[in-house]
Amino acid sequence: MSFDFSKILSVAWGGWTTTWPTELLALLWLAFLASWVGASFWQGRTKKQVMTRESQRYRLPILVGGILYTPWVAEIMGWKPLWVLDNTGIAVAAVLSAAGIAFAWWGRLHLGKFWSNTITHKEDHRVIDTGPYGIVRHPIYTGLIFGMLVTGVAIGLVTTILGAILISLGMWQKGRMEEVFLSKELGEDAYGAYCRRVPMIIPFLSPR
């Protein structure tokens, strides 16, 4: 009996990720994931972090949203896009998504060794309020939320739109938890004052 690797590949990788022009969006996010994971080794030593059980409050919606964001769920359910953009529309969406990713990368590079995938207090941690952190308190979340929402809408599947919304809610929840944690760790006078001065995720809004 012959082994058909192509069938397994079609299940693991299909739907909007292999259909042009939406394949362009898939390639964009794959490049982002590869570079983001590759850079995860560049961070300072952790002094303290939020317990795993508490982190499930933001991890769960991000996980569920990530699953919905993949092409598998819609393909299994046999759902079709609510709308179909042409090459120009997808190209515009790709540019906007890339802009969101670039903003997130700006935030990560500016944060430097203080970046972490979890909510942590790094050694020598201090409030960063320059560069993108002078625009919003969580530029990484701002960029990723914007890019994922644009991509989700451009693909036009209920699953990708819902997935992008859940991921966004998870990131918002993580940002709120991070602010409570850092206000305690870095001091209300330092981090609390920063929160009262700079918007959380959406630029130009009143800080909350």
UniProtKB/TrEMBL annotation:
<feature type="transmembrane region" description="Helical">
    <location>
        <begin position="24"/>
        <end position="42"/>
    </location>
</feature>
<dbReference type="InterPro" id="IPR007269">
    <property type="entry name" value="ICMT_MeTrfase"/>
</dbReference>
<keyword id="KW-1133">Transmembrane helix</keyword>
<feature type="transmembrane region" description="Helical">
    <location>
        <begin position="62"/>
        <end position="82"/>
    </location>
</feature>
<feature type="transmembrane region" description="Helical">
    <location>
        <begin position="144"/>
        <end position="172"/>
    </location>
</feature>
<dbReference type="Pfam" id="PF04140">
    <property type="entry name" value="ICMT"/>
</dbReference>
<keyword id="KW-0812">Transmembrane</keyword>
<keyword id="KW-0472">Membrane</keyword>
<feature type="transmembrane region" description="Helical">
    <location>
        <begin position="88"/>
        <end position="106"/>
    </location>
</feature>
<protein>
    <submittedName>
        <fullName>Isoprenylcysteine carboxylmethyltransferase family protein</fullName>
    </submittedName>
</protein>
